[in-house]
Amino acid sequence: MTLAAPATVRTGGPAHSPPKITTLPAWPVASILTLYPLWWALGLGVLIFAGMAVPMLFLLLRRRVAGRPLLLPPGFGWWALFLMAVVVSIGALGVDPVGTLPEHGSGRLPAVAYKLAMYLSITVLLIYAGNLTERELPKAKLVRYLGWLFVVTVAGGFLGMMAGHFQFTSPVEMLLPPGIRGKGFVQSLVHPYAAQIMDIVGGAKPRPAAPWGYTNTWGNNFCLLVGFLVVAAWRSGRGRHRTLAIICLLASIVPAVVSLNRGLWIGIGVLVLYVAVRYVLAGKLWIIGVVAVAGAMLTFAVVATPLGGVVSARLDNGKSNGVRSFLIDRAIDGFTSSPVIGYGGTRNTRGGRQSITVGESAGCERCGNFTVGGNGQLWQLLYAHGAAGTVGYLGFFLYGLWRFRRDRSAIGVAASAALVTSFSAMLWYNALVTPLAFMVLAFALLWRNSLERTPTERTSTEGDETR
């Protein structure tokens, strides 16, 4: 099986009549991104990706039946391997690894079915966004949508800071039976709230989460989306847009620091370093001055304001370090016990780090019964889907980075930077649902760039690369 070439599915029509051309409307993708705050408020949130996958799949199939080719992304064989591993690993749901709480496989099935449905929905989003033409949805407009979501992320950060206890019952939540809507997992999907209240540096304090559900997801999406805001503002050619983007970037420092999210801080460093290296290699040395000025401004903002104390307090309080190390050890142990297909899903530990008799309670929700595979996409892949799933997942995105490495456009650099920062994020963040959605949209932008470049542009780019 060749993984390097993009796959194409073609349906030929009768010899005497040309095939009917059916365009793809942009509204399924556009409505997800532009109206996401509304979906969050309604209680749909991440569920909108599954909901919109239905019309997207229908429209793709309709266009294929009409005779227009259906393209699959380059390296899709890797992603297909991952999806197959997710399905096959379901057969191991009934296994109770050493040190985990016993449970019947059927009890674990709902969460696993939800994740599988979301993975399939994200796959449909990837294929749909990649098959949209420049006339149907310009890449610049898709970048603006993603940049808009960075603005939404910053706004959600300030909401979490100033009204950390803000929450409300969504319309979808109201429609659910009390026995279902009261479950923690269901609450995380349909109950909007501004922040997670956590004791990290002494005393319970709000950490921004809106509209992404979790503080870690908020930080992950912050890194994935920030580059698209910059590209959207600078490509607009309007000084007002650039000024507003700069104001938004400067303002974003506050919730980014107050979130106490070390993974976010590392991700921003990875993002800046990658972009700087790409531009330096392209001969654009002015990026060094931009990074130096931005770094100086950031340092001043942290040192000359109370934000510096927040950073110091977070670095001095690594309460989660022990739990993370414990869960990584458990994930690796589980991987070595079932290295090919994993266990199909996560498991809860028996007890905590110190003793198997320590468990979660109303007075100490974080004392035990930790979720193995819940502290990073990499550890979840290894534990839940084994080597097959991990290789397929990583192989797809790594192949994309290699395949599109010559794309030096602003959109290409921003999209590849988003994928690069996601690799550092997978050490401590889980990707499903919205981070993975933004990752595949970044991949789709790179893919469409490669399809829409003219032969002359390809030759010119390749020539530049050799000089």
TrEMBL record:
Q: Where are the transmembrane segments?
A: 38-61, 70-92, 112-133, 145-168, 218-234, 241-258, 264-281, 286-307, 382-402, 409-429, 435-451
InterPro entries, per the entry:
WaaL-like
Tell me which UniProt keywords the record has, alphabetically.
Membrane, Transmembrane, Transmembrane helix
From which residue to which does the signal peptide run?
none
Give the source's domain of life in one word.
Bacteria
* Keyword Lipid biosynthesis set for record: no
Does the record's keyword annotation contain Phosphoprotein?
Answer: no
Full protein name: Uncharacterized protein
